[in-house]
Specification:
The complex is a heterotrimer of chains A (342), B (350) and C (518). Chain B contains 14 helices and two strands, in the order βααααααααβαααααα. Chain B is mostly helical and 350 residues long. Chain B has a single domain, classed as Amino acid/polyamine transporter I (Up-down Bundle). The longest helix of chain C is centred in the C-terminal third of the chain and has 36 residues. Chain C folds into three domains: 138 residues, no CATH class; 128 residues, no CATH class; 160 residues, no CATH class. Classes of the chains: A alpha/beta (342), B mainly alpha (350), C alpha+beta (518). At the B-C interface, helix 5, helix 6 and helix 11 of B face helix 10 and helix 15 of C.
């Protein structure tokens, strides 16, 4: 019995060398982000991956790039990994950039692979661009930390919209509303965040600037740290909004949107006049955004259709075209701001 | 010399059943069979009522004891229960293999983990019901802590706009999911063999168990819907997808931890099933058959279950057959209601 | 009367007769025959000493001792001198009676009737007096062997408690306990185990607190010990556990502190003091007791609770961290935050071994160094520290043989395992097991092994008390002194006895009768 135990232990120790080589982290392609371009039915993937060859102790994580092509996303990803010669690890992938050719086409097909494959987190962020994803990914300032800042921009500045993969796909699958995705552009060889792109179904329809993104966030009721400033009657008003709470009331063919938030003022006198100016500003940008994005471009990025579905299902189910009903409805925006001087 | 019979408290029985039933919700059941997860919340109410009624004949039979039924008939009944427990073991192992493969790929050989799990569960069954129930109580605590952490981490992701109005839920979905949820109550037949080992209020534990299971299922259904929305319908295992969204601080992917804790729950479930199988086989084969032969048979059946489940993971048709909710429901209803009723009626008129 | 009176009653044969088919014969009346038998039994043993004397009435007598075991000065003053100078009158009373009652002034005197008892007493440091014409001898308690003085225990260290630890002699240890529990409720029951060593042991308990069933079970187990010699406490531990118990955890506790023993017996436990070793065994012993120290009761409740929670965390860190590190690095790297993943991947890239092999290698090197540090003479201890720091520290990492993150993990594990020294053997083995399963099965393997170990612990009982009590079967009342330590005002309200724990089932039968699972 003891001999058997001793032999078993010895064999197990000898087997320590037999753990699969691909389990070694340095033999894995640790993908941090993926850029997708589509050209004549051919996908080009630009993968940003972690450079594990840097000396231990270096503070910044450096990244390298690999490219691959294929007639589907999975084929292109396989080609990318094959060119580097390592098994890919997608668990650390934090973003997907939909580049030229994809945003104008069927983004649902492009994203389907990422929703099915277990390694990709449903919470990874989606970005889009009208330029080539390859150019954006290989820009001078592109890095993992930059992308992490972009991913948080909706919460930190309120000037962009950063949906996660599951939110985008949920919208596309549910067919009750549209999605807006953060937009990246190249500005003198550097990547910058520039508002968002609104989609009509799964095709891009309009771009939103920073204030329009703010309006969308406020209407959705998710504003936690929105920075804004404007000049009114020659006076500059600087403020940030937090604790946003939006209530949407449905009446006959109209939506009443009541936005409540706390405003922190910076270098501005807290007065009733300031409050009314801020309220007017919010009401104005919200109304303009609704008119341009929803009514002109038919993109319901504000969840009005879902609001109708949840609040008034009995009306919703009688409608032949709920999206059209929403588009033709009247919208009244009212802001109620609570001032707090800093 | 009196033989000492292992006894567990009714609270331990409750923990055991909650865990055994709860682990199914992750990868099986109404969550994976539904067109709209939210309808599961409504189905849960229906299934709770049916489950309460289902447990009555077995509680009555369990109080009498299977050996009171009669020698021949009792052994035949025990044989049927043995087959049922064997089927549930195959289902559980298949579920484990499929979900494990879906969540972590095939880096680890598809054979190693089911065999390791079976070996550990056989050890648990060997150690007896006391060990299983006490370990189950601790693992249930871990599972509750894990789910609470997940819920806290995902509460900010929930939105009422992701929910579906009750009027939009389909009656056919609700009924189908109720049937499947009733089928998942595979712990009910185990009451028959557990009854002599429980001290305290067994009836109260069973009622409490059914209430807890269906309330938490309904709550989970609503919460998962509020987070995932329509995305859930595109996923094979929505609960696992929901867990994949979780993060605490810098640790982004907690689903691996959640799945590992789920595996601990599967271990308890398997141990309980193997223990029940051992017990039912002893009755079926008769007291003259030695304990070692009986336990050896359980080990062989367990290995057979592993082989079947691993093959099911490869073969889609075979997998659908094993994981078919209607077959499970039919067998559970037969073993929980029909067979005990027949035995009770026979005894009454004997 | 002396301590051995309970055991060696005049008319009662010694209960220890394991494998001894030939009990020793009774003493002879003739002195010469007695001496001849004894000399033939001891052979030419250099320490067997016989001092023949003549009493005043010319009767011959002999004083027999073992060299170094008795106090020679006391023998001369209290035995030899008085005997030689006493005028024996012509009476019917036996000489032994007269010597016992009128001649000797020693406080401990036992009558001996057979050679077995005689040998035991001589080898326990007693002096034997044999008088020609008497078939009874007298054993006089004049022990004078050297022993280590009372000093602080090196294994059971506390900050705010007594500095007294148990010593080797049984009587000294009994005194240390008696001084702290000045109640007649405190009982000592002595036994002998070991057919050749005849090691004296004493069961120490409080009569009002102890469970009689546990006591009788314990005595039965001790009586059945088939060993020839018992030289350390660890010899008898396996016989107190259930036969065939493969658990890594022990249901028998060990301590070297008398204050700890007093605390334990106050909870209904039984302490087993063993002659020749300062280690005292405590039964029943539960899992949560590994995390309790005397300092917990000296410090404030909030700090004591904090320390306890820290110990539990340290235990989990010590057992699981290396295995989880291997599992996550190999199979679930997405659990690492980005910065850490980069460091780990970079270190793996720069070393020749996989994470699994590295962790195993460092652990084995660490265990070798730990073992070397234990056995090494003190002057060389510094050399081990220097070699360890150089070999395992800077040199190994800078030469690229071992990665820094791996070294950090192993160092953290090592430090954590010393927070609960009682569980070190268990932690060391479990750690290696989890590294293996983590390397081959990932997180799934770890959780499956954890579940199996948990079932093993949960099904274990220590004299009928569930080993995991009060965690499971859960007892809210029991939690007041397990994971947390509530204040003394709360603890003093209601006493907690070990046999009253939930799920306790001390049957009158042996645990082997338990029909497993049925």
């Amino acid at each position: 019995m003891k001999k058997i135990l001793a032999i078993t232990v010895a064999v197990m120790i000898m087997l320590t060398g037999c753990t699969p080589i691909e389990n070694n982290l340095d033999k894995r392609l640790i993908v941090q982000g993926i850029g997708i371009d589509l050209n004549s039915g051919n996908y080009t993937i630009t993968a940003m991956y972690m450079d594990t060859q840097q000396p231990v102790g270096e503070a910044d994580v450096t990244s390298s790039y690999a490219q691959g092509e294929g007639n589907s996303i999975s084929a292109a990803l396989t080609d990318t990994a094959a060119k580097v010669g390592k098994e890919p690890l997608y668990g650390q992938c934090s973003f997907i950039l939909l580049g030229k050719g994809v945003t104008g086409n069927n983004i649902k097909d492009s994203l389907k692979f990422f929703t099915d494959y277990y390694e990709f987190s449903p919470g990874l962020k989606i970005f889009c661009s009208e330029e080539k994803a390859e150019d954006i990914m290989k820009s001078e300032n592109m890095s993992d930390s930059l992308i992490k800042d972009f991913c948080n921009s909706e919460k930190s500045t309120g000037k962009s919209l950063n949906p996660a993969l599951y939110e985008v796909y949920s919208c596309l699958a549910g067919n009750k509303g549209d999605i807006a995705i953060a937009r990246l552009i190249l500005n003198e060889k550097n990547t910058v965040l520039d508002g968002a792109v609104a989609f009509d179904g799964d095709k891009s329809a309009a771009t939103l600037d920073g204030s329009e993104c703010t309006a969308a966030i406020l209407i959705r009721g998710k504003g936690d740290n929105i920075w804004d400033n404007f000049i009114e009657s020659g006076k500059e008003i600087n403020y940030s909004l937090s604790g946003c709470n939006t209530n949407i009331k449905l009446t006959d063919n109209s939506f009443e949107i009541i936005i409540k938030a706390k405003a922190n003022l910076y270098a501005t006198d807290p007065s009733e006049d300031t409050r009314s100016k801020i309220e007017a500003r919010i009401e104005s940008i919200c109304k303009k955004t609704i008119d341009r994005i929803l009514k002109e471009n038919n993109c319901d990025i504000f969840n009005f259709e879902r609001e109708l579905y949840v609040q008034n299902y009995s009306v919703y189910r009688m409608l032949y075209n709920p999206a059209e009903y929403v588009r033709k409805s009247n919208f009244k925006v009212k802001a109620e701001i609570d001032l707090q001087a800093v | 010399m009196m033989t000492r019979v292992s006894k567990i408290s009714s609270a331990q029985l409750l923990c055991l059943f909650v865990l055994s039933r709860g682990v199914l919700s992750v990868g099986y059941g109404a969550f994976t069979h539904s067109n709209n997860i939210q309808s599961t919340a409504v189905s849960a109410i229906l299934a709770a009522v049916v489950s309460l009624l289902m447990s009555v004949p077995l509680l009555r039979l369990g109080r009498m004891g299977i050996h009171e039924i009669g020698h021949g008939i009792g052994r035949a009944a025990a044989g049927i229960y043995s087959v049922y427990f064997f089927y549930i073991i195959i289902l559980t192992l298949t579920l484990f293999t499929v979900l494990r493969t879906e969540s972590s790929g095939l880096k680890i050989s598809i054979w190693i983990l089911p065999i390791a799990l079976l070996a550990a569960a056989i050890y648990g069954a060997y150690k007896g019901i006391e060990g299983i129930s006490r370990a189950g109580a601790l693992i249930l605590f871990m599972v509750i802590a894990a789910i609470t952490l997940l819920c806290l981490g995902l509460i900010s992701n929930s939105s009422r706009l992701n929910l579906t109005p009750i009027g939009a839920l389909k009656i056919s979905d609700i009924i189908r999911e109720s049937i499947i949820m009733v089928g998942e109550q595979s712990c009910i037949p185990a009451i028959l063999f557990l009854y002599p080992h429980v001290k305290g209020n067994v009836k109260g534990s069973i009622i409490f168990w059914i209430m807890i299971v269906f309330v938490t299922t309904a709550g989970m259904a609503v919460f998962i819907s509020s987070v995932l929305g329509d995305y859930a319908q595109t996923q094979s295992f929505p609960v696992y997808t929901w867990a994949r969204l979780s993060s605490i601080g810098v640790i982004q992917r907690l689903d691996s931890v959640f799945m590992a804790i789920w595996a601990a729950g599967i271990f308890i479930r398997l141990s309980l099933l193997l223990w029940a199988l051992k017990y039912s086989l002893r009755y079926a084969l008769g007291r003259k058959v030695g304990r070692k032969i009986c336990f050896g048979t359980v080990i062989l059946l367990g290995l057979a279950a592993v082989i079947i489940s691993v093959n099911a993971a490869y073969n889609e048709t075979f997998r659908r057959l094993i994981l078919n909710g209607y077959i499970l429901a039919a067998s559970t209803i037969f073993c929980s209601v029909v067979l005990p009723l027949l035995l009770l009626i026979r005894r009454r008129f004997k | 009367m002396g301590i051995f009176d309970n055991l060696f009653n005049k008319r009662q044969a010694c209960p220890q007769n394991h494998g001894n088919s030939n009990p020793e014969p009774l003493l002879y009346s003739e002195l010469a025959k007695n001496l001849k038998y004894m000399k033939s039994s001891f052979g030419n043993s250099a320490d067997f000493t016989v001092r023949k004397i003549d009493l005043k009435d010319k009767t011959k007598a002999a004083i027999i001792t073992m060299e170094g075991m008795s106090n020679k000065e006391i023998i001369s003053l209290s035995i030899t001198n008085p005997m030689m100078n006493y005028c024996f009158e012509n009476t019917d009373a036996s000489k032994i009676d007269i010597i016992e009652k009128r001649v000797l002034s020693a406080s401990e005197l036992v009558r001996v009737i057979d050679f077995g008892q005689a040998f035991t007493f001589i080898m326990s440091g007693f002096t034997l007096i044999i008088v020609d014409g008497c078939d009874i001898a007298l054993a006089v308690g004049v022990q004078g062997f050297s022993f280590r003085g009372i000093s602080e225990s090196e294994t059971d260290v506390v900050q705010r408690g007594s500095r007294e630890g148990f010593s080797e002699p049984l009587r000294i240890n009994m005194t240390l306990v008696r001084r702290r529990m000045k109640t007649p409720d405190l009982r000592f029951e002595t036994m002998q185990i070991g057919t050749k060593s005849k090691t004296d042991i004493a069961l120490c308990y409080l009569k009002s607190a102890v469970s009689q069933k546990i006591l009788s079970q314990l005595k039965e187990k001790l009586r059945r010990i088939p060993l020839d010699s018992v030289l350390a406490a660890g010899y008898i531990v396996p016989f107190l556990e259930k036969e065939g118990d493969l658990s890594l955890f022990s249901g028998v506790g060990v301590t070297e502190r008398p204050d700890t023993v007093c605390g334990k017996i106050n909870e209904g436990r039984i302490a087993i003091l063993i002659d020749g070793t300062p280690s005292v065994l405590i039964v029943p012993y539960l899992f949560v007791e590994n995390f309790q120290t005397l300092d917990d009761y000296s410090n404030k409740a909030y700090f004591a609770s904090f320390s306890r929670i820290l110990k539990y965390l340290a235990f989990f860190v010590a057992v699981f961290t290396p295995g989880m590190y291997v599992a996550i690095a190999g199979y679930n790297p997405e659990l690492f935050p980005g910065g850490i993943l980069n460091k780990v991947a970079a270190s793996v890239a720069q070393t020749p071994f996989s994470v699994f092999t590295e962790v195993l290698l460092i652990h084995f090197i660490y265990e070798i160094m730990r073992e070397a540090g234990l056995r090494l003479p003190r002057p060389l201890g510094h050399a081990v520290s220097i070699v360890g720091a150089l070999v395992l520290g800077e040199t190994a990492v800078s030469s690229g043989l071992i990665g820094a993150p791996t070294l950090m993990i192993v160092a953290l594990t090592a430090i954590s395992s010393y927070v609960i020294p009682d569980l070190y053997p268990t932690v060391a083995v479990l750690r290696i097991a989890f590294i293996f399963v983590g390397g081959f099965g990932g997180l799934w393997g770890i959780i499956i092994l954890f579940a199996a170990v948990l079932v093993n612990m949960c099904s274990k009982k220590s004299f009928g008390v569930p080993y995991m009590s009060p965690l499971t079967p859960f007892s809210f009342f029991g939690l007041r002194d397990s994971i947390l330590r509530l204040g003394w005002r709360t603890l003093a309200k209601r006493k907690s006895l070990v046999q009253n724990h939930r799920g306790c089932d001390i049957s009158s039968q042996e645990e082997e009768n338990d029909d497993k699972g049925e």
